[in-house]
Amino acid sequence: MVNNNSVESKMQNATTLFHKSQNARPRIAFVDSGIGGIPYIDALHRKHQYFDLHYVCDTKGFPYGKRSGDYLRAHSSALLARIMQVIDPDCIVLACNTLSLTCLSYLRAQCSVPIVGVVPAIKRAIDDEKQRIYVMSTINTAQSDETKKLIRRHKRDNQRVFMRAYSELVEYIERYVLNQEDAYWAYIASILSHLINDLETLKTDALILGCTHFVHCKHHIVRDCPRNIRVYDSVDGVVRRINDMFSIRAHDKGMHKKSILFYCTDDSNEALYREFVKRHAMEYSTPLVIKESDLVN
């Protein structure tokens, strides 16, 4: 996994590497705990046929938003080593705000391929001159030093940023998307009702979905939000970043679209994830298992 070549050099040379063959497809691996990153890989899959896409649903590490920094660094290091061994990707997307804010620099220093991170779209809202910006996230993202640095670096004196943790919502969304049971949606609806009330009380004009799981509920949130509130996520930004990295332009033409390959990291709830994969027209692959001996202490 470790390589003397810098990540920056690999990114600069990406176009050359993938244009040597007319049939070459950049292989991209998306990683998240659970199904949070699915809207991100789906967006890339809908837009482009050029990529060979793989989704690593880290069921063993779920949920990242409640894990310690030490756990995330050790676990993600072992996971990326397995991804490099089994999938051999040309790029890895950390489709999780918490994982990106906690481990992006750490993992880039170890990895021989470019890694794209996902962070809350706070800068976009600030650049749009929104005055009262509400960020809903996990507790780890809300308390992250990297999040605080991001706010300090870009916020103007006349702007307020409200950080709010909704860690419990992640687990309800995971269960609902997998099970499609009304009982789980009732919990989600109750939390979203509290969210809307909080937005109105604080007189916000921007809402940042600071966890990839929350994008699964974006339609419902946008529908229920006051009209003056703009809802932000980072999906389009990630798609543009990958597009720019590989300069695909016209390469989609004449290429058939490959199915997304889906991996869990253990066999817990395998039947539920297999059914989910079938509903999303993906292909279920052999679990990408992390052994205790793989973990970095």
What's this entry about, in short?
This protein is of the alpha/beta class and about 300 residues long. It contains 13 helices and 10 strands.
Q: In oligomeric terms, what are we looking at?
A: single chain
The helix fraction, in percent, is 40-55%
Instruction: Give the N-terminus to C-terminus distance in angstroms.
Output: 16 Å
> Low-confidence spans: pLDDT under 50, at least 5 residues?
1-23
Number of helical segments with 4 or more residues: 13
Strand order of the largest sheet: 4-3-1-2-9-10
Sheet with most strands: 6 strands, parallel
- Secondary structure category: alpha/beta
What are the defining features of this structure?
single chain; 297 residues; alpha/beta; 13 helices
Structure description:
The protein is built from 13 helices and ten strands. It has helices at 7-12, 14-18, 38-47, 69-86, 97-108, 122-127, 139-143, 145-154, 167-179, 182-201, 218-224, 235-246, 270-279; strands at 27-32, 52-57, 91-94, 115-117, 132-137, 160-165, 206-209, 230-232, 261-264, 283-284. The strands form two sheets. Strands 4-3-1-2-9-10 form a six-stranded parallel sheet, sandwiched between helices. A four-stranded parallel sheet has the order 6-5-7-8. α3 crosses α12 (235-246), α4 crosses α5 (97-108) and α9 (167-179) runs antiparallel to α10 (182-201). The radius of gyration is 19 Å and the shape is globular. It starts with 6 loop residues before the first helix and ends in a 13-residue tail after the last strand.
